[in-house]
Amino acid sequence: MARMSHRYPQELRERAARLVADSRDQYESEWSAIDSIATKLGIGSAETLRKWVPQG
């Protein structure tokens, strides 16, 4: 089975990462924030969004 490639606009990537950072304290964990925001924004998987969030 071929792997599908999804390209998301840079603006969406930046917005999603910013939303995670800005709302992190409203969730039990960073992963909970990422999972919720990915779903709300229609991002294919939470793991995709996790890769966009700066670590540190």
Name a few traits of the molecule.
Arc Repressor Mutant, subunit A, 59% helix
Characterization of this structure:
- The longest helix has 14 residues, at 10-23.
- The chain has helices at residues 10-23, 30-41, 46-52.
- It has one domain (10-52): Arc Repressor Mutant, subunit A (Orthogonal Bundle).
- Helix 1 (10-23) packs across helix 2 (30-41) and helix 2 crosses helix 3.
- By secondary structure, the protein is an all-alpha fold.
- It contains 3 helices and no strands.
The count of helical stretches stands at 3
Average predicted confidence as pLDDT: 91
Count the strands? 0
CA-based shape: globular
Radius of gyration: 11 Å
Q: SSE string, helix = H, strand = E? A: HHH
CATH topology: Arc Repressor Mutant, subunit A
Going by CATH, the homologous superfamily would be Winged helix-like DNA-binding domain superfamily/Winged helix DNA-binding domain
- Terminal Cα separation, in Å? 36 Å
Structural class: mainly alpha
Helical content class: 55-70%
**Domains counted in the coordinates: how many?**
1
Q: What low-confidence regions span 5 or more consecutive residues with pLDDT below 50?
A: none
Q: What fraction of the residues are assigned to beta strands by DSSP?
A: under 5%
The profile of the biggest β sheet is: none
Assigned CATH class: Mainly Alpha
CATH architectural group: Orthogonal Bundle
